[in-house]
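This entry is set out below.
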Amino acid sequence: MKALKIALSQFGIKETVGKLHNKEVLKYFLETGHDWVRDDETAWCSAFVNWVCMKAELAKSGKLNARSWLTVGEKATEPKLGDIVVFWRSSPSSWKGHVGFFIRETKNWVYVLGGNQNNSVNIKAYPKNRLLQYRRL
């Protein structure tokens, strides 16, 4: 639950529109070893999850692609609050994806606390048919 508490402390942080960039978003890159990223338009969902896991002293992927989380921790079939959730984006076979922390699920939706969800840290529902895996750290 430490990771969720840390993630929730960032709730509402969002990208800055225009030429300026939110320093809070940039810290996710900087503090996880991706200091070459200089803008908040670079996809940051995995940077956010890595940053939270670093602060919570949990395993992390260390990478900026969401699907890198498919090799961290163990696969979970029954998700628990705070587990990692990995989704596909574009197509199931694409390299693209999204990652965040499991909050709850319904028949058709998975609710995730994550970064870069509509350009901010929030809780958002994703279609369950886009789920790749739940991962337990």
